[in-house]
Amino acid sequence: MFEHLLRDNIRDLIPYSSARSEFKGVAEVLLDANENPFDHAFNRYPDPMQKALKVEIGKYRNIDPANIFLSNGSDGIIEMLVRTFCDPGKDSVSYFTPGFSMYKVAAQLNAASTNVFELDHNFKLDEVAFVENLKDNDKLAFITSPNNPTGNAYSIEQVKYVAKNFKGLVILDEAYVDFSTVASGISLLEAYPNLVVLQTFSKAFGAAGIRLGMAFMHQELVGYLNKVKMPYNISDITQQEAMKVLADPARIEREIKELIVERQRLEKVLPEMTQVVKVYPSDTNFLLAEFVDSTKVYKALLDKGIILRDISRVKGLANCLRVTIGTVEENDKFLKALKEVS
Question: Tell me, what's the pLDDT at 211?
Answer without folding.
Answer: 98
